[in-house]
Design brief:
Elements (H helix, E strand, L loop, with lengths): L1 H24 L7 H22 L10
Helix pairs in contact: 1-2
Length: 64
């Protein structure tokens, strides 16, 4: 599961970088920066949801 989450975070970072680059350099393949920004946000939220839903189940109920 952690490999999938790391891959999603990596893709979110890539999408964010593309959003910044397209903001300053113009559209890439006709895609506006807002699309990359939304993709970055959605991928990060999916990664967060996966960690919360299927994270380390052994630590549930334990206090730190």
């Amino acid at each position: 599961m952690s490999t999938l989450v790391k891959a999603l975070i990596g893709l979110a970072v890539l999408a964010f970088v593309l959003a910044v680059v397209t903001h300053f350099g113009g559209p890439i393949v006709g895609t506006r920066p807002e699309a990359y920004s939304r993709a970055s946000t959605n991928l990060a939220l999916i990664a967060i949801a996966l960690v919360l839903a299927f994270g380390d189940r052994a630590s549930l109920g334990r206090s730190v």
